Amino acid sequence: MAKNKKNNGLKVKIIGCGGIGTCLTDTLCRYLQYSDHPNIEVSLIDGDTYEERNRERQVFQEIGPKATVTAERLRNEFPRLIFWDHPVYVGDHNIIQLIRENDIVFSCVDNHKTRKLVSDRAEELDNATIISGGNDYEDGNVQIHIRRDGTNLTVPVASQYHPEIMNPQDKNPGDIDEERMGCQQMAAAAPQLLIMNNLIAAHMLKAFYAVTKGYHEKNPQEYSEFYVDIPSGKVMPRTRVVKQGM
Question: Do residues 144 and 227 lie in contact, with contact meaning Cβ atoms separated by under 8 Å?
Fold first, then answer.
């Protein structure tokens, strides 16, 4: 994988430019700007729009589509990187175009339906890395799905360990439905803590660094999932075993 990246560059996809995404993106791009990876492309994917109420937890300079506004800001700050903006929600109709072979995907979404879509797409590919983060107010988890040469080295994001993702009961914000729960309603129902968003983003970046350095190769399942909790101050790895045939 490292050799392939050296020859062909690095393609990073960030799905979600909200709470976790905005904490993750600047640090990731600053690291990549001064790294030795050649031909770095960063795609920002989000169908939502920045609003004034988002300033409590998100970084933006103007009101507008999150993916486009963020990409424009980052282009000015990190000129070595190539940025693509996709102001759309990930759905059945576009996921094949958005997630491709050898992509490294940061899933920073707040719904299980999209997590399931991303997880299923990864299993259609021969090589992909999915780093998925999510949190409640003071705790959260990070999952790392590493797939190489058509084989899962770690457990997919949607697996027997997470039935809520395997069989999502929520909605993808891109679903066209009169009863769709928009991001504003979701935020009202589930308040977020900026500090927790930042903590999850930091651990997602730690996983990215470890995978790109090949630290996962000796025992990849050590990089499968971990749980983060502010009140206890603990970061706890979770044992996740890849089923035969996965």
Answer: no
pLDDT score for 187: 44
Q: Which region, left, alpha or beta, applies to residue 238 given φ > 0 means left and ψ of -120 to 50 means alpha?
A: beta
Nearby residues of 83 by Cβ (< 8 Å), 6 or more positions away: 41, 42, 43, 44, 71, 74, 75
The CA-atom distances, in angstroms, between 215 and each of 5, 11, 156, 212, 219 are: 15, 19, 19, 8, 8
d(CA 70, CA 85): 8
State both tokens at 182. 């928009």
Minimal CA–CA distance to 221: which of 143, 140, 119, 136? Answer: 143
Q: 160, 166 in Cβ contact below 8 A?
A: yes
**Ranges of the chain with pLDDT below 70:** 1-8, 50-63, 176-189, 244-246
For β-strands 104-107 and 128-135, DSSP reports them as: parallel
pLDDT at residue 71 in the model: 93
The 10s digit of each residue's pLDDT in 29-51 is 999 999 999 999 999 999 987 66
Q: Which residue from 118, 183, 175 is spatially nearest to 147, judged by alpha carbons?
A: 118
DSSP 99: S
Distance of CA 65 to the CA centre of its chain: 18
Q: What is the pLDDT of residue 79?
A: 95
Q: List, for residues 190-208, the tens digit of each pLDDT value.
A: 788 999 999 999 999 999 9
For 81, phi then psi, to 5°, come to -90, 150
